[in-house]
Write a structure and sequence with these properties.
single chain, alpha/beta, Nucleotidyltransferase, domain 5, six-stranded mixed sheet, five-stranded mixed sheet, 16 strands, 33% helix
């Protein structure tokens, strides 16, 4: 199993997994997707992950990387965005390793996507500060400096209009409020301008499911910083989680 690992991407609405070639950064299987259980509690999510692993039919010694919408410090979830608060201060690494009887490495979902884009995608060989923003149920972010991941940035929770930025500009807000691409782009403009003001990055990368429609909204943004879609699109989290699991195995 020299160059293979499994990546599992746990989100607020769906859980996706695939077998990954970590040398090339490509999927070796179809993505298996299941709905995130109502409430997003650890026990129910663990059962869905177990089902996905069964469907992928990979040997038990295949490392598993799981990315998750939370600050993850040394395998312990320190927050919970769009999932149950039972995850807070929960040793997810130890829990999944025991429950799945596999070698598991746990990390933040946007950090997994950022690591993948630095190793295989739009941030490959990029100098200076890159900020990846995943636009989905919430907004996740990853900071990369000269290709090195600075974990747990959580810039989707910066204050904007009296609330966290993700409650103003996430892709789920576009759907819920039935915003046009132009209306949503105006909100993204404010968000990315705030990041520019605070951090002066060299590159923005936009990931998440909506990145497949990047031509609808990225050309509408007027920023000082170049902004590009994630090359690995919505598989970036899966690929990054797998690559980091292999690195730590």
């Amino acid at each position: 199993m020299g160059k293979k690992a499994i990546g599992i991407d746990i989100g607020g609405t769906g859980i996706k997994g695939a077998l990954v070639d970590v040398t090339e950064g490509v999927l070796l299987s179809e993505r298996v997707r299941m709905d995130t259980p109502e409430g997003g509690r650890p026990e129910e999510i663990t059962e869905v992950v177990r089902q996905i692993l069964r469907e992928l039919k990979s040997p038990k010694d295949t490392p598993v990387g799981i990315c998750f919408p939370a600050v993850v410090q040394n395998g312990v979830a320190k927050s919970a965005a769009n999932v149950s608060p039972k995850w807070i201060d929960f040793d997810a690494d130890a829990h999944f390793t025991k429950a799945l009887k596999r070698d598991v490495h746990m990390l933040n979902d946007a950090d997994a996507a950022g690591f993948a884009e630095a190793k295989y995608g739009a941030a490959r060989k990029q100098k200076g500060l890159t900020i990846l923003a995943t636009l989905g149920t919430g907004i996740g972010t990853a900071l990369l400096y000269n290709g090195t991941l600075i974990p747990n940035s959580e810039l989707g929770h910066l204050p904007l209009h009296g609330d966290s930025a993700e409650k103003f500009a996430a892709a789920s807000v576009k759907e819920r409020e039935e915003l046009s691409w132009v209306e949503w782009a105006a909100r993204l403009q404010e968000y990315f301008e705030l990041l520019e003001k605070l951090l002066v990055p060299d590159l923005f990368i936009v990931g998440g499911g909506v990145s497949k429609d990047h031509l609808e909204f990225l050309p509408l943004l007027r920023l000082k910083t170049p902004i590009v879609p994630a090359e690995l699109k919505n598989s970036a989290g899966i690929i990054g989680a797998a690559a980091l699991a292999k690195k730590h195995s």
